[in-house]
Amino acid sequence: MPEFNVRSDSVNVEHIMEQIRARIREKRGVDYTEEQIRELAAIKLEKFLDPRGVRSDLLDQFRKAMPAYEPPVLPNYSFESDTLFESHRGIIRFFRKLFHPLLKLFLFNPNPLIRALNIQAQLNTMYAEREAQRESSRRAMDQLYYELIHNLVLELTRTGIEVKNLKMRVESLSSRLEFNERRARALESAVVYKPAEEERPSRPSTPPAFASPQPAPAPPQSQTPAPQAPHPQSGSPPEGPGQRSRRRRRRRGRRGGGSVAAQFGSPGAAPQPAAGATDGSPDARPEAPPAFAAGDSAFASDDRSHATAGPAFAAPDPTAASARSAFASDDHPDASARQAQTGADDGEEDDGPDDDGAPDTGGGEPHGQ
Amino acid sequence: MKVAVVVQRYGTSINGGAELHARYIAERLARHGEVEVLTTCTTDYVTWRNELPPGVEQVNGVSVRRFPVKHERDPHVFGRRQERVFEQRHSLGDELDWLDAEGPTTPALVDHIARYAGEYAFCLFFSYRYYHAFYGARAAADRAILVPTAERDATIGLSIFHPLFRNVRAVMYNSPEERTMIQAVSGNEAVAGVVVGVGSDVPSNPQPGRFRQKYNVRGPFAVYVGRIDVNKGCKELFDFFEGYLQDPHGKLSLVLIGNSLLPIPQHPRIRHLGFLNDADKFDAMAAADVLFMPSYYESLSMVALEAWALGRPVLANGRCDVLKGQCIRSNAGLYYDNAQEFAETLKAIEQNRWLSGTLGRNGRQFFREHYDWPVIERKYLDMFERVRKAPAAGTVEPLPGWFDRRRQDLPAAEDILARLPTGPVTGHRQSDGRRWA
User: Fold this and answer.
1) Can you tell me the distance from the alpha carbon of B304 to that of B72, in angstroms, rounded to the nearest whole number?
2) Which residue, of A220, B96, B361, B402, is most buried by count of CB atoms within 10 Å of its CB?
3) Helix, coil or strand: residue A5
4) How high is the pLDDT of residue A30?
């Protein structure tokens, strides 16, 4: 995916920053602020998002916070048939029992009272036991409710995060879609190149020499393997007089005369050129068609490592090309291409401005001195 | 026409932002008329110790008159008073005490201005925050032109300075953000003002190869130029750059130029070259792929302008409104708010040479249009003409009396600062249709 796109020479820094931020958001997934990220990082998210882990730990915490239920010791009494006549003195106890028939005869009968109080004491004991049992079962149910509500909250949180993620993905996809639509419109409006009649015979139709399965005849006295770089004459169709010089002129024109914009190309976006014989340069890529209409073509710029790889597009009108081209940077520089094309970076002694003050833009020439 | 340039320090060896700004302006205006610099005998902005003899001398063809500082700065007293006026409810007297503690307290300089103001057509006061500007502008209010060099710090919230911005004849702003901030805090829209800034003597033919050879610097690199200090955002820069170094695709090294008040991270791709002369500095900037400007507070980044003059893009701290505004208006630099943005923007500049080149070209154009010396000189001369034709505004707002000065009714300066508008100015255009510098 291209890192960001820049259209024309009139760079809009705010637009570029928006694209860079969108890319960061896309990478990150959710557009949290730095503070939020730090806050989230401080929390063990996995612990919260794993119900199994959460359940055991938090339930223990809950149990610690709520100690086991012990029924209270309620005051009660026992009332039997002789309770009314009890005394720690034996003689008093004797006389009370002795005069009990007189009490029943002349005053009142205490037996119904004794029976009622006895039943009441039994009822008190029974109700206390039942209350303790009920309280215990209620507390057990509270634990279950707590677990249930906690797990619901967790699920809701996780769902919320997922919704946020999905929302961001939808936004990202819609922006990509919008970009692709724009790009498609730009490509649709581009003029299709048709090579001139005189150039058609000169364009070789066979694959380049290094890709040809036909082995080149080796000289009998040489036992060394064939060089990797293809020789310009091996395997390529014979060129007519002036064809190579014309091609060189075209290439020189693209390098020097075109705008900076026109010298960058996207390997993916460019139409594949017909295979042609290489000219022995370190750049073994097949040469691109000589010219494409620069109209609204989408150009993909590469980094300096790709700066000299064959331009995918060549703009015949440098001003038009630079004014209306879109560039996309390459995310993965090719180190070997860099070494082959621009010379080792470490060896550069000068990266200063060009005559016009613009930084060196590659385009097949080592920037330096 | 005789113009007085009043500044807290002056000399070829003084490289502070406002002081260098004042020297450049004085030397340039000396080509159009007589210029006299009124300054102090100090070279140290921390202690204000008198180190140069009082009297008149010539510096690069400009007459410089020096006055002794009455007392050095006591850091403890200054710190205590600053804490009070910045963070607590206070009185006007507290602010005046703070100004006296800040210095450089030079009553002789103010007396000279009051006595001889009539000899000068205009008095240019640099740096509103110091003693000389506050009292000097009051002494010559009918010909005072202020170059505030104001940053977004709590000093702008002090009440004593608000009449200063309203009572001068004109204000030469460094940036639209500075103007917005000053107008919001003081309501001086009626005072003539223009965004000017300052130019720089950037060599037309820098020698990046010479720099690489001299300092054995190889490969692509980013450069930071300035004092290496926490207040300049260098600690954050180191953190972010160390994060960038983790990226295997990143090839840039970091070259640091300037005196360091911070430990430099030990890494083979981070090099500290110390203080360099101007030629080497410009060669280094021309050799660099990008200039870092990590400062949080700037009224105008001269280093960024110099990088743009050399066709180099700038990567600035987006939390500094001025730097962000400059990047947006010039379309010549990117900015970052956090480590991810730092890495991505740096990657964009490093890997997309077309973008880097276009930013650099935009910067060069921006510098030529707004900060080239003829443009700067013309703005000053036009302002002189405008002020000369306009009638003087009136009387200076007097300082309150003894009782009013001791009334504890002023809010903390930081509270006022927090209420000021933030963000870069991007939509305005100058009277001639060009975008703001």
Assistant:
1) 33
2) B361
3) strand
4) 56
Q: Which amino acid is at A108?
A: F
Q: Are residues A256 and A326 in the same domain?
A: yes
CB A84 within 8 A of CB A108: no
Q: Are B10 and B43 members of one domain?
A: yes
Side chain identity at residue A114, one-letter code: I
At which residue do the structure tokens 């691109």 appear? A288
**Would the CB atoms of A362 and B347 count as touching at under 8 Å?**
no
**Which residues of chain A does B213 touch, with a Cβ-Cβ cutoff of 8 Å?**
349
Burial of residue B59 (number of CB atoms within 10 Å: 0-12, 13-18, 19+): middle
Strand-pair category, B192-195 with B221-225: unpaired
Are B169 and B239 part of one and the same domain?
no
| Nearest-CB residue to B212 (from A34, A350, A359) | A350
Q: CA torsion, points B13, B16, B22, B28, in degrees to nearest 10?
A: 60
State the amino acid at position A116 in one-letter form: A
Residues of chain B contacting A304 with CB distance shorter than 8 Å: 351, 353
Domain holding A171, by residue range, is: 44-188
In this structure, are B238 and B305 located in the same domain? yes
Of A153, A188, A223, which residue is a domain's last? A188
SS (H, E, C) B198-243: CCCCCCCCCCHHHHHHHHCCCCCEEEEECCECHHHCHHHHHHHHHH
Strands in B314-317's sheet, in edge-to-edge order, are B270-274, B253-257, B221-225, B290-293, B314-317, B333-336
CATH of the domain at B333: 3.40.50.2000
Longest dimension (CA), chain B: 67
More confident residue, A355 or B242: B242
Query: Considering only CA atoms, which of A310, A268, A261, A302 is closest in space to residue A286?
Result: A310
Residues B187 and B90 in one domain: yes
3-state class (DSSP) for residue B12: coil
How many alpha carbons lie under 13 Å from residue A119 in its C-beta half-sphere? 5
Angstrom distances, CA of residue A129 to CA of A73, A126, A136? 10, 5, 11
B286 contacts on A by Cβ (under 8 Å): 352-353
Instruction: Locate the chain A residue with the closest alpha carbon to B346.
Output: A20
Alpha-helical regions (H) of A216-334:
243-252, 318-324
Per-residue CA distances from B85 to A184, B94, B163, B301 (Å): 61, 7, 17, 28
Which tokens sit at B83? 């804490």
How much is the average pLDDT of B50-67? 94
Instruction: Note the pLDDT tens digit of each residue in A76-131.
Output: 777 777 777 888 888 888 888 888 888 888 888 888 888 888 889 889 889 988 98
> Which is more confident, B362 or A37?
B362
Q: Do B334 and A21 touch (CB under 8 A)?
A: no
Quick one: B344 and B386 in the same domain?
Answer: no
* Residues B314-336 pLDDT 10s: 999 998 988 999 899 889 999 99
Q: Which of A 277-316 lie inside 8 A of B, CB atoms?
A: 301, 303-304, 307
Domain range for residue B335? 208-370
**CA-derived radius of gyration, chain A:** 47
ipTM, 2 decimals? Answer: 0.79
Give the N- to C-terminal CA distance of chain B in Å, as an integer: 28
B255 in helix, strand or coil? strand
- Neighbouring CB atoms inside 10 A of A319's CB total 13
Of A185, A356, A198, A164, residue with least CA distance to A290? A198
